[in-house]
Design brief:
The complex is a heterodimer of chains A (about 350) and B (about 500). Chain A is an alpha+beta fold. Helix content of chain A is about 25%, strand content about 25%. Helices cover about 35% and strands about 20% of the residues of chain B. Chain B starts with a strand and ends in a 13-residue tail after the last strand. Among the domains of chain B are: about 1-100, Uridine Diphospho-n-acetylenolpyruvylglucosamine Reductase, domain 2; about 105-225, Uridine Diphospho-n-acetylenolpyruvylglucosamine Reductase, domain 3, CATH 3.30.465; about 225-335, 2-Layer Sandwich (Alpha-Beta Plaits), CATH 3.30.70.2190. Chain B has 17 helices and 23 strands. Chain B has helices at about 15-25, 35, 60-75, 125-130, 150-155, 165, 170-175, 200-205, 240-250, 265-275, 295-310, 320-330, 335-340, 355-370, 400-415, 430-440, 440-455; strands at about 1-5, 30, 45-50, 55, 75-80, 95-100, 105-110, 115-120, 135-140, 175-180, 185-190, 215-220, 220-225, 225-235, 255-260, 285-290, 315-320, 345, 350, 375-380, 385, 390, 480. The chains are: A alpha+beta (about 350), B alpha+beta (about 500). The interface between A and B is large, with 77 and 86 residues. Flavin-adenine dinucleotide (FAD) binds near residues 78 and 159 of chain B. Flavin-adenine dinucleotide binds near residues 85, 143, 154 and 461 of chain B.
Chain lengths: ~350, ~500
């Protein structure tokens, strides 16, 4: 279960670089349906696994990318700790590396931060087969460009992630979910009022119901539940939302995330509003262009998550000059475009 | 003083100067030595260089045109905010121009509903919180230089502050940035949630003006916490104080701020501000807890227990704003206070894992005794960001060299404990050597490759932040001579 595969992996990447043959980086394989379909020989990371360093009193853990989130949770929970940020787990084989590469953050995002906020350092294999370390294991670090955070959400197109150093936190003593029936505009007003004032760690709105998660010290959570009233909700509902496993996500069509100013109005389309308003999930058969335009109207952007037509890709191409800049950044780390070729954009 | 680059008679065609004048407003181009002199250095005045000219555009369009022109003529450009940087990041290039963003100082919009602000780069940090205050909001990163430093400079340095332990650094609070690459092309990265196809925002924050010139920043605004309580705990030994910090962190409590001052810093602060610390204090820990009232009561009780359990013999508590300011006063004036103890001091900036505080402080003490050079410690203990201040007299021959040796040893100590050579002051010109200790040649080459992706001809702030692999000597620190610091009236750190 714990094994350092660095040398072997680096040799494979080096050879692929020399031959200019693409590689598909595979962790637990549970995020393969996200993003475009990559070209290339599979490069399995699952055997590069285990905790490298864990100092409970420092609230930092360094873990190999092939470690499953499930195993990491087990190690941390023995110390009463958990990863600070809310990371989706699509199944028990979801790996840390895959999670970083896909860059998804669960419903805790407005309260416990984005995945990239919890990443303090990484060790990677570049597209030329070099093993490189960026960032570190301390909270404040301004030496060098922040290449560690650059890895988050890059879908493995900039490097093979070997190890990641993550912030961890104490497990909450108590977690409660409560629900309220109300309009979206009322819900949004309340969420604004409650921020910083209540131990909130999640809030979503669906079918006229606002669900909030309260977590932290037992006494505080109990008091908050008493203060707020509302109905008790199912505790698992936030985990299912995090893992995109709610009934809602099973509707036919493409799943989209619309990232919009949180105060944007509720759209009559069947949507699920997460992140206290900033993330709107849509499952729709509408053409990609329509969805992207809709997000633009709100002053936001749409990210394609999954669906029948994988050629779409998560992100629309930015304006030509910025696309050229992204392409040069890609080439700086992976000059032959061998890593997960085509996963984010065609040909790179 | 170190003249960074020899001033050579560089001759740029008159066409360049004519175009530059045409782009800029009538009062927007400084070329006379007397006008340019104030731009010769930033907050680290031992490094100085005179630029060919200083451009002061008023609009973003002018910024783009200046860059495009400089790119055409191959003229180096050093962006500059308020010039409060402490690592020489805004040090001019002798064959280039300084591009001051100070006049782009409009708050474009405050959106209280979505809790964001859009800012031009020259807006001063404090001005954002002031503009947000009527809505019960504030901009969280609060460097001590906040009345002077600009948002553009904060983005470039990934600035932190006393409250970043809980609220994060600049990188955690910036959602989107508009910037020009060296060729004068405008780009926008990030968005309402800070996400994008590649996280170029992460690269740009902390890039010290090497990758692009920032012309607009969208930041997150945070609701003001309902209540705040500050605690000052006095200890009979530095070890106990450091252990209490590790204990608070080890319990998983995240105070808004958690600072430590050692005996030397305390006696200096006490003499300077005239407010006594409990007698026999060998170290003091300042903890600030904020949030809703109910949580605060729980946290304050818990922190108190931990401080007492680790040997605190006196604890003062402050709830009103007035009382809190009094508790913080010594901490905030500690740097100028220490500056009075010796003719010169040298300020280090490194970070270590917080669990190593006790050992690292003890080792710094040992090395200080070994060198016979006093070291005062006043720092962001909660996030492990050390600022050891080495006291010395530069007039004694060979003394500065010994200080630099001790400084280098301290930075190597930070690295040995798994830390970093800079927690918040940046690399600039000052820590180029330290970069070689922290990164391999291949890693440095990667930084250069990224630089080239943004700026293929290396015209933006060339020679800063990332050393060429050839230059690897020894780590450096921040020098202060004759107790005279630029911006000496500002609170420090
Ligand atoms: C008294 C004092 C206290 C301080 N306290 C703190 C502290 O608590 N925490 C902390 O982190 N720092 C602190 N600093 C350091 C300094 O204030 C910060 O680094 C600040 O962010 C610099 O902002 P500035 O506007 O002065 O930038 P400058 O010094 O003008 O420039 C800094 C760097 O940013 C680049 N730059 C500036 N504007 C732009 C732009 N628009 N686009 C691209 N690049 C740009 C410059 O080229 C340079 O490399 C302190 C400094 C002083 C003098």
């Amino acid at each position: 279960m714990t094994h350092d595969d660095t040398a072997t992996l680096a040799a494979i990447v080096r050879e692929a670089y020399d031959r200019q043959t693409p590689l598909e980086i595979v962790g637990g394989g549970t995020r393969r349906h996200l993003g475009r379909a990559p070209d290339g020989q599979p490069l399995p990371l699952a055997s590069h696994s285990g905790v490298v360093e864990y100092e409970p009193s420092g609230f930092v853990v360094t873990v190999r990318a092939g470690t499953t989130l499930h195993d990491l949770d087990a190690v941390l929970s023995r110390e009463g700790q958990k990863v600070t940020v809310d990371i989706p787990r699509f199944s028990s084989t979801s790996t840390v590396g895959g999670a970083i590469a896909a860059g998804f953050t669960g419903p805790g995002r407005p309260y416990t931060g984005a995945l990239r906020d919890s990443v303090l350092g990484t060790r990677i294999i570049s597209g030329t087969g070099q093993v490189l370390t960026f960032g570190g294991k301390v909270l404040k670090n301004v030496a060098g460009f922040d290449v560690s955070r650059l890895m988050v959400g890059a879908f493995g197109t900039l490097g093979v992630i070997l190890d990641v150093t993550l912030r961890v936190s104490r497990c909450p003593e108590d977690v409660q979910v409560i629900e309220f029936e109300m309009s979206w505009s009322d819900a949004r007003e309340r969420l604004k009022r409650w921020e910083g004032d209540l131990p909130l760690t999640g809030a979503f709105y669906h079918r006229g119901v606002l669900s909030v998660r309260l977590a932290g010290r037992a006494a505080r959570v109990t008091a908050a539940v008493r203060e707020l009233g509302g109905e008790r909700g199912r505790p698992e509902v936030f985990t299912e939302l995090r893992d995109l496993a709610l009934e809602f996500f099973r509707a036919p069509g493409s799943l989209w995330r619309l990232l919009v100013p949180p105060d944007s109005p509720w759209d009559p389309q069947e949507t699920l509003i997460d992140w206290a308003g900033a993330q709107r999930f849509w499952v729709t058969l509408a053409p990609a262009q329509k969805v992207r335009e809709k997000a633009l109207q709100y002053g936001g952007q749409a990210v394609w998550v999954w669906g029948p037509d994988r050629s779409e890709g998560p992100w629309a191409a930015p304006p030509a000059a910025t696309m050229a800049l992204l392409t040069r950044v890609k080439a700086a780390l992976d000059p032959q475009a061998i890593l997960n070729r085509g996963r984010l954009y065609p040909d790179w | 003083m170190k003249e960074f680059t020899e001033q050579k008679a560089t001759t740029l065609p008159t066409a360049f100067w004519r175009s530059l004048r045409r782009i800029l407003p009538a009062d927007g181009l400084l070329t006379k030595p007397t006008q340019v002199a104030v731009y010769e250095c930033d907050g680290l005045p031992v490094y100085r260089a005179r630029p060919l000219a200083v451009a002061l555009p008023r609009t973003r369009a002018q910024v783009g045109l200046v860059l495009a022109l400089c790119s055409r003529y191959g003229v180096p450009v050093v962006a500059r905010g308020a010039g409060t940087g402490l690592s020489g990041g805004a040090l001019p290039h002798a064959h280039g121009i300084v591009l001051s963003l100070a006049r782009l100082n409009r708050i474009v919009a405050i959106d209280p509903h979505n809790r964001t602000a859009r800012l031009e780069p020259g807006v001063r940090n404090i001005a954002v919180s002031e503009a947000a205050a009527p809505y019960g909001l504030f901009y969280a990163p609060d460097p001590s230089s906040q009345i002077a430093c600009t948002i553009g400079g904060n983005v470039a340095e990934n600035a932190g502050g006393v409250h970043c332990l809980k609220y994060g650094l600049t990188t955690h609070n910036v959602l989107a940035v508009q910037f020009f690459t060296a060729d004068g092309v405008l780009h926008e990265v990030g968005g309402v949630t800070g996400e994008g196809p590649l996280d170029l925002l992460a690269l740009l924050v902390g890039s010290e003006g090497l990758l692009g010139v920032v012309v607009e920043v969208m930041v997150r605004l945070t609701p003001k916490p309902p209540a705040t309580v500050a605690l000052l705990a006095a200890f009979r030994s530095l070890g106990e104080a450091a252990a209490s910090v590790s204990a608070v962190i080890g319990e998983g409590i995240i105070p808004a701020g958690l600072e430590l001052m050692d005996a030397l810093a305390l006696s200096a602060a006490q003499d300077y501000i005239g407010i006594p610390y409990p007698p026999d204090s060998q170290a003091v820990v300042l903890a600030e807890v904020d949030g809703d009232l109910a949580t605060i009561e729980l946290d304050v009780a818990h922190v108190r227990r931990l401080l007492l359990g680790h040997g605190a013999f006196a604890i003062e508590e402050a709830r009103s704003e007035e009382d809190r300011r009094r508790l913080w006063l010594g901490r905030k004036s500690a740097f100028p206070a220490v500056g009075r103890l010796a003719p010169d001091y040298y300020c280090m900036d490194g970070t270590i894992p917080r669990s190593a505080l006790v050992s690292v402080l003890a080792e710094i003490g040992e090395r200080s005794r070994h060198y016979g050079l006093p070291v005062a410690n006043v720092f962001h203990a909660g996030d492990g960001n050390l600022h050891p201040l080495i006291l010395y007299d530069a007039k004694i021959p060979g003394e500065l060299e010994r200080v630099e040796e001790l400084g280098a040893e301290i930075l190597r100590l930070c690295l040995a404990y798994g830390g970093t050579i800079s927690g918040e002051h940046g690399v600039g010109v000052e820590k180029l050597d330290g970069m070689c200790a922290q990164f391999t040649a291949a890693e440095l080459a990667t930084f250069h490759a990224l630089k080239s992706a943004f700026d293929p001809h290396h015209l933006l702030n060339p020679g800063k932040a990332v050393p060429t692999p050839a230059r690897c000597v020894e780590p450096g620190g921040m020098h202060v001579h004759g107790g005279r610091l630029p911006f000496s009236s500002l609170e420090r750190f």
